[in-house]
Amino acid sequence: MEQIDDQQIKADDRRYVLHSWSKQKAIHPSIIKKAEGIFFWDDSGKKFYDMSAQLVYLNVGHNHPKLMEEFKHIGDIPFASPGFATASTAELARKIIEVAPKNMAKVFFANGGADSNDHAIKIARMVTGRYKIFSRYRSYHGATFGAGNLSGENRRFAVEPGLPGFIKFETPHLYHEKIDFESEEAASDFYLDRLEHQILYEGPESIAAIFMETIPGSNGVLIPPKGYMEGVRALCTKYGILMICDEVMSGFGRTGKMFAVDHFNLEPDMMTFAKGVTCGYNPLGGVIVSSSIADYFDDHVLLTGLTYSGHTVSTQIGCATLDIYKNEHLVEHAAEMGHVLAERLEQLMRFASVGEVRHLGLFAAVELVKDKQTKEPLMGYGKDYGKDTEGLMKKFVGLLMEQGFYTYSHDSHVMIAPPLIISEQQIHEAMDLFELALIKFEKELFS
Ligand code: PLP
């Protein structure tokens, strides 16, 4: 590569690169100059706590020595198209099945999250012979056409008018629900009853799959009420519908268990994954299918494919990544650190602008409100996406960045999902910075 200075990188970036989800004139990307563990440093020399693991994928942290070492062995396994059996692809598929729910049998490899979801849609249609796909509001499944149609929030608007047969139902979000349920179970019954009505109205015999982020991530870490996930499983079984759990963000230890589905008493028919399988050190995603789906394709053509399905470099990095989860006990560590983070998050409820905190393991969100009583969000949501007319979320995120707390925000919440290697002390340091930003924010907002 050419050696060019920071000024030139920024000039070329401005001139030649299109950045996602942004008005190009409104953004001024900085450069990450150095990164180590949970930290990175930008081109001004400022140090940041990476509290969204970039975009919730760098579970092993930046610059992990074992993965950097693995890159030196790239080329040991020759490039091979998907028609060949390769050591890394076979080993990674086996390793994934070993940690997946018991009914899971085989893996189809894709390039990332969105195309994994596209393939799960296709597989569901092939196996069931049905075409309708249910998915939820307040979900994000990716930016390709299929995954975009699954997504139940504003980032899908670019693929509208969408594909026929994609139907949305509600994600339980008790904080913003007008009904005051007497228990979580009662809330689950309510939402499940509505879902069953929708299934019956649409005609179960036409519905191939119900698609869900096990725990919706970028829409605010919405943890399902007790009994809800098992209830969806029961409805799927009752009507012969496949249950597909998108574990792209929540998988690989994020919630303190290997997959978020492991928190519930159920086995999905398919699971999609990406991010944490290589922690972003190389792009990779995939679909894990149950033994009955795997068996179906023994005698039926799997009518789909990708040039880079099971790319040897990505699967080699995937194998090394899964070894790190195991050898460094990262999933157990995430569960332990989750308790530390939970305590700090619950303490945030004393702030006037904090409406709700939600967390499971190291997967968390803080929802901000203008008024605790009315729960009025800080900025517009849904079709009013991006209408941060008063600039309040932008202001808060700016204050976080000023403190050196880097994270992702969407609508009126910010995510807290650091690399799983974070220590107890680092959680306290980062959350002290978060509180400082909140104090400054409230001084301006409420004084
Ligand atoms: N599914 C979920 C739950 C995600 O959070 C994302 C991305 O954030 C995707 C799918 C899409 O993944 P990718 O950006 O790798 O296509």
From TrEMBL:
Keyword Transferase: yes
GO terms of molecular function: transaminase activity
Organism domain of life: Bacteria
InterPro entries documented for this protein: Aminotrans_3, Aminotrans_3_PPA_site, PyrdxlP-dep_Trfase, PyrdxlP-dep_Trfase_major, PyrdxlP-dep_Trfase_small
Pfam families xref list: Aminotran_3 (PF00202)
Annotated transmembrane regions: none
Keywords in alphabetical order: Aminotransferase, Pyridoxal phosphate, Transferase
Protein name: Aminotransferase class III-fold pyridoxal phosphate-dependent enzyme
Organism (species): Sporolactobacillus kofuensis
